[in-house]
């Protein structure tokens, strides 16, 4: 549910909205065009979701690697070391599990990248900084 347009968006609101797949600016659902693609702008407030910086969303890859290592690779390595799985079965399961897990959590990873950016730079949200001087430049 969108909140009052006149109030600034707090970091807590940015976190809650982003982790639930909502626009960090207005709180409306609909950030995603499909499972693997963001809309170019929020359907409600029109905030641009595309970043001009090349590679802005490549952080999803790093998050995916870390999650795959913790959730898939380490447990499978332990099973192989304890001889509960053969090496080649472990390799096949690790590859398959890592790819499937990364695909499954991809929208969450995109939301995490958006959340991280706006938690660090909340004045970049249109509701927080579009009519105010840039806080980062005044410090």
Automatic annotation (TrEMBL):
<protein>
    <submittedName>
        <fullName>DUF983 domain-containing protein</fullName>
    </submittedName>
</protein>
<keyword id="KW-0472">Membrane</keyword>
<keyword id="KW-1133">Transmembrane helix</keyword>
<dbReference type="InterPro" id="IPR009325">
    <property type="entry name" value="DUF983"/>
</dbReference>
<feature type="transmembrane region" description="Helical">
    <location>
        <begin position="93"/>
        <end position="120"/>
    </location>
</feature>
<feature type="transmembrane region" description="Helical">
    <location>
        <begin position="56"/>
        <end position="81"/>
    </location>
</feature>
<dbReference type="Pfam" id="PF06170">
    <property type="entry name" value="DUF983"/>
</dbReference>
<keyword id="KW-0812">Transmembrane</keyword>
């Amino acid at each position: 549910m969108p909140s009052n347009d006149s109030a600034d968006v707090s970091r807590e609101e940015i976190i809650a909205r982003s982790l639930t797949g909502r626009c960090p600016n207005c709180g409306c659902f609909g950030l995603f065009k499909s499972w693997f693609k963001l809309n170019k702008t929020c359907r409600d407030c029109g905030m641009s979701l595309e970043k001009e910086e090349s590679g802005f969303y490549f952080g999803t890859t790093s998050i995916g690697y870390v999650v795959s290592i913790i959730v898939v690779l380490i447990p499978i390595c332990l099973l192989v070391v304890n001889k509960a799985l053969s090496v080649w079965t472990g390799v096949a399961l690790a590859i398959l599990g890592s790819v499937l897990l990364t695909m499954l959590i991809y929208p969450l990873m995109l939301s995490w990248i958006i959340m991280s950016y706006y938690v660090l730079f909340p004045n970049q949200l249109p509701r927080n900084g579009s009519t105010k001087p840039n806080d980062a430049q005044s410090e």
